[in-house]
Specification:
Strand content: 15-25%
Bound molecules: adenosine-5'-diphosphate, magnesium ion
Number of helices: 23
Number of strands: 21
């Protein structure tokens, strides 16, 4: 068994010369342990390998020279009241002037005299006719021989407040000398050599003490990549171990030939797409199999995820169990409830609905549930409450699961014993992030839209073309279609924006005379929301003026145009979701992004991408590039982005490789080794993040 060197976990203050001030400085950069210090890497390198004759050094370039002091003294002009200082130095080939606009190095002034030999490095510039180096690094030398020692590639570390560059370098050197030999990779040796990875020690040595400057491009930088693999590996190993754990218990094997399921499948009003069929087979395999299903269904907006969730529910309920279907908003939960209710009307299967604020109705529902053995329960977070008991829970469905925490998924799951779990998301997550967030789930992808769907034409319209937007909306209404008009709701100015939507609703009546206008926003009572939503769905409202409450899940196929006001204020994924409210039928649809004059460059970039593509995965990739992983998932505070070296935006491939390696390692590890990995992971990620609690 691998024996980890515990000294690596010792605090940096163990190193000689590290007092409270330096400890504090290092802590500011999350450097607490010796290991943290060793993984604090230079970001740039300066090549000081070649000493050049003065005659050959070029303006604008860094130079390393060995030369003797010819003259020195105060600079003839004053700057900020203080005298500058200068020295003219020479080698056999020429002279150059060194300048300091504040204090020169003390020994230069105090102990250097004419003829003192110096090693000088800095960037060459020109002042009038003269070449000069301003604020050079200088070091006195005993003799020319000595200069050899200082020829090197100099690592430049990110600045740390309260810790001087030289001190940091010395500490890293000391840490490496004392503990470098015991640096051992978490990746088993066999796997390391099979994949021809340099050792951890070699990699760190190459980065901290390079003999040649590392390549500028990160891709060619094997050693850096090696270190990223190391940290991603730990992460993936922990995720896979967690997944193993979940698979230790047998699941509930269900009969996929039960009448309810077969009947519902036979009565569908449309043909499933090839992608839907494929995913359905995967679901059947899971639910009839030995292990509990733990599946993420990912599919772009409008790809038809709901029907698969309903069919999975049929497998569970038709075999005498209960299915719980949770959605993040009341309108979406209500929509699912109505859909399922309608579908099951003739089957006699009870369908229940729970949301917050139901008053007496809630108790009534719970009581009715108690008298039923098997049923479908649909609702919001309200399903999570303690008094909702689901003793025969066979399936948990979580729609738009990125809106929930995994702990919520877990709470629901734990109302039963090892139920099957299906989580769905329309927010396509780039593969890198998916490996991070959903590493414990099997993934099914719906990469096909139902037949006859059209690309949604997207127009970015500045305020000056507003009337054009209204004209396009009116044209759709004229054809008997419906429209959404969306207003942003920014927290800080919620009231103002609310006014916007409300004011806009009455304005819409003058814009579209004779049309039926509805208003929907989050501050309305659930009942009111339900009423307006079902009126819209039934085609009794032509234009729905609303806030982003309609962002996810809402399905009104007859709506073919969506106008988004202040589109520059929305994020990329959010706009894509909003756009997904249309294009849900065979009618061609339009998305109108109205913008105000003032928009940032980033906003313009977002809008351009949207106008260019309908592909949710491409959009997610772009979103990740623009916003970064943390912000994209609202995780800025969570520490997910807290990989020390790896960057989820850049190192997707490496994450995939790390996962492969982790899967290999899992096969090799004994139980205590696996436990050790879990412990190391827990410690490393202790501040801030519980990976299994953020998806
Ligand atoms: P999402 O994946 O965004 O949740 P939905 O499940 O809401 O999408 O489906 C979008 C619309 O497409 C719904 O009106 C649904 O009834 C319809 N739909 C789903 N599958 C098909 C299909 N195979 N053929 C035609 N329409 C379908
Ligand atoms: Mg949906």
């Amino acid at each position: 068994m691998r024996k980890r060197n515990e000294n690596l976990d010792r605090p940096v203050s163990d190193l000689k010369g590290v007092g409270p001030a330096i400890t504090r400085g290092l802590a500011g950069r999350a450097i607490h342990t010796i290991e943290d210090l060793l993984f604090f890497l230079p970001t740039r390198y300066e090549d000081r390998r070649e000493i050049r004759p003065i005659s050959e050094i070029e303006e604008g370039e860094p130079a390393l020279i060995v030369a003797r002091v010819l003259t020195q003294g105060s600079l003839s002009f004053r700057r900020g009241g203080k005298a500058g200082y200068q020295a003219v130095v020479t080698d056999d080939t020429g002279t150059i002037c060194l300048k300091w606009f504040h204090h020169p190095p003390r020994y230069l002034k105090e102990s250097a005299s004419k003829g003192t030999l110096l090693l000088i490095s800095g960037k060459v510039t020109r002042f009038g006719a003269q070449r000069q180096i301003v604020h050079p690094d200088v070091m006195p030398l005993e003799n020319e021989e000595e200069s050899r020692e200082y020829k090197a590639v100099i690592p430049l570390y990110p600045e740390i407040e309260g810790v001087k560059r030289g001190i940091l370098k010395r500490l890293v050197k000391k840490a490496f000398e004392d503990h470098g030999a015991s640096l051992e990779s978490l990746i088993p040796v066999g796997i390391e050599s099979r994949h021809r990875l340099p050792s951890l020690r070699e990699a760190l040595e190459a980065l901290h003490f390079p003999h040649v400057p590392p390549p500028l491009s990160d891709e060619d930088f094997v050693e850096r990549k090696r270190l990223i693999i190391e940290e991603f590996f730990l992460f993936q190993a922990a995720v896979l171990l967690e997944r193993e754990e979940g698979r230790r218990f047998p699941g509930i094997r269900l009969d996929i030939n039960n009448d309810l399921y077969r009947g519902t499948l036979g009565n569908l009003t449309f043909d499933l797409t090839t992608a839907q069929q494929r995913v359905l087979e995967e679901i059947e395999g899971d639910m009839a199999g030995l292990r509990p299903m733990n599946r993420l269904l990912q599919g772009d907006v409008g790809s038809g995820k709901t029907i698969l969730a309903i069919l999975a529910s049929c497998i569970a309920v038709g075999d005498g169990l209960q299915a719980a279907f949770m959605a993040p908003t009341e309108i979406l939960a209500e929509q699912h409830y109505l859909t399922v209710h309608r579908m099951f009307e003739e089957t006699g299967v009870p369908v229940f609905y729970l949301r917050g604020d139901m008053g007496k109705e809630r108790e009534e529902t719970l009581r009715r549930m108690e008298s039923e053995k098997s049923f479908i329960l649909i609702g919001t977070h309200a399903l999570l409450q303690k008094d909702v008991t689901l003793t025969r829970l066979g399936l948990v469905v979580v729609d738009e699961q990125h809106r929930f925490g995994v702990s919520q998924r877990r709470t629901l799951k734990q109302k039963g014993f090892m139920p099957h779990v299906l989580v769905m998301s329309a927010t396509p997550i780039p593969r890198t992030l998916s490996l991070v967030l959903h590493g414990d789930l099997d993934v099914s992808i719906l990469d096909e839209l139902p037949r006859g769907r059209h690309r949604i034409a997207t127009h970015v319209l500045p305020d000056s073309l507003r009337s054009e937007a209204y004209r396009m909306i009116e044209a759709e209404l004229e054809k008997g279609r419906q429209a959404y008009m969306v207003y942003p709701l920014v927290e800080q100015s919620e009231k103002v924006d609310l006014l916007d939507a409300t004011a806009m609703a009455s304005h819409a009546e003058t814009l579209f005379p004779g049309r039926r206008i509805g208003l929907l926003h989050g501050k309305m009572k659930p009942r009111e929301k339900e009423q307006i939503m079902s009126a819209f769905k039934a085609g009794e409202v032509d234009v729905l003026v609303c806030t982003t409450v309609v962002e996810v899940g809402i399905d009104v196929p007859n709506a073919t145009v969506i106008a988004v006001e202040h589109a520059e204020r929305f994020g990329l994924s959010q706009l894509h979701q909003l756009r997904g409210r249309v294009g849900r039928s065979t009618f061609p649809s339009k998305c109108l992004l109205l913008t105000q004059a003032k928009r940032t460059e980033q906003a313009s970039r977002r809008l351009k991408i949207l106008a260019k593509t309908n592909d949710g995965f491409l959009i997610a990739e772009e979103d990740l590039k623009i916003r970064g992983a943390g912000e994209m998932l609202g995780l800025r505070q969570s520490g997910l982005t807290g990989f020390r070296i790896g960057d989820l935006r850049r190192d997707g491939e490496t994450m995939a490789l790390a996962r492969e390696l982790a899967a290999e390692a899992l096969k090799e590890w004994s139980h205590p080794e696996a436990e050790e990995i879990k412990a190391i992971f827990a410690k490393r990620w202790s501040h801030g993040l519980n990976v299994f609690d953020i998806a």
